[in-house]
Here is the input.
Amino acid sequence: MLRVTLNIDCTGCGAEDELYTGILCWACVLSTTVDQLLTDSTTGTISPQLRPFAEALKGMKRANSGLTWIRQPHVTAFLQSLATTTDISHETVDALPASRTREFVRGLLEEHGVLPRRDRYRARFEDWSTAALDRVNDPSHADVVRRYIRWQHLRRMNQMDEVPQGTFLRSKQTVTVAIQLLNWLHDRGVPLPSCSSTTSTSGRPPDPPPASWPTGSSPGPSGPSSSTPT
Here is the structure.
């Protein structure tokens, strides 16, 4: 009788487990991949700041799923960029290309103590509102919207322990409506100071501006535009 001996022991960790490469299990391949991606090529080591994050990735319960995720080209590229970041902070993570992967990894960095937790909806609103200003057609109107964002929305958010999703979504909506209104006025040559609730939009009265805007004036106090909300 022919006897076939099958060795399913991993040569890396010695565990009797499903082998990925024929000699190494999924967990060992994942561990090696994480080390390769998070090693700074200029130093040859993983930054001490990133070691808790690296250990968390290596310890994923479903190593095969973790390896599939990490080997996606956009995830691989992001982790390699993170590895060469000299000082891991929210600001340096912000400087990396914006993507869903960036925010997912940020959450993992917070969860494992690499980064302090921060108000994600407030941060998302700040990023969104900065980009939204590019949609304003008139530079003077952009300053109006900028002050409206600062003094109406960010000031209110700063007074909250944590910004809820509803506040984030409502703030985006009202700023979007404000930008649309100002662009409509600009395209028709209507000066903002002369705008009133009777100004016609294609033969009908326009929708009212957000209730927090003082009637007949631009939003926010007239303080210097470089002021930072408290």
Remarks:
- The two ends are 82 Å apart (CA to CA).
- Residues 120-230 form one domain.
- DSSP finds nine helices and two strands in the chain.
